[in-house]
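hi! just following up on the protien thing from before. the input was this:
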Amino acid sequence: MGSSGSRPASAAAAAAGAEAVAYVAAEDADALECGVCFHPLKPPIFQCDEGHVVCSLCHYKLAPTGKCHVCGIATRNYHRCHAMERLLKSIRVSCPNAVHGCGARPAYYAQHDHCQTCPHAPCRCPGKDCNFLGLTEALLDHFTSAYGWPSTTKISAFETCCIRLPDGFNFILADCTEDDDHLTTTSSSCRTSSS
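and the predicted 3d structure came back as:
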């Protein structure tokens, strides 16, 4: 009964441990950054013989020196640090746009990249002295209610349309979908007109 009897307890302990780890706060976020460029560490990660870690780009920059950037000890080569890579892959953070409905929990090192393309990121109104901030759909409603701007038109792929823009700041957002051949055409423009 030894090993088979202990498995459920081990599985339960592992599940409880995983749940507890989900709520760990990093007291020293610098420990998750490269000691040379100070960007978040992401795989592949390398370490010197003393355990000092660097990101991949800095590893290649430091390799010709033959010395660790921290301790200065001569090192033949930095070695991959698989344990740190696994740790970093397991650290998940909430998207800053969670308050706007984003449920993504990217890896710590991927948060910036996620934020650049997050569909829940709020949009600011380009109107002068307007402090509106909201999701794209709310911004389109805001354009209609606050400025009387028409907010949407729908055309099919490869069709053209004429849009008359009033004087002042004009904002166009094109949101395209993929066709059956997986071809997507997206264009957007933003311009100021005074004529």
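Confidence is low (pLDDT under 50) at residues 1-7, 16-20, 185-195.
The first helix runs from residue 2 to 21.
cheers
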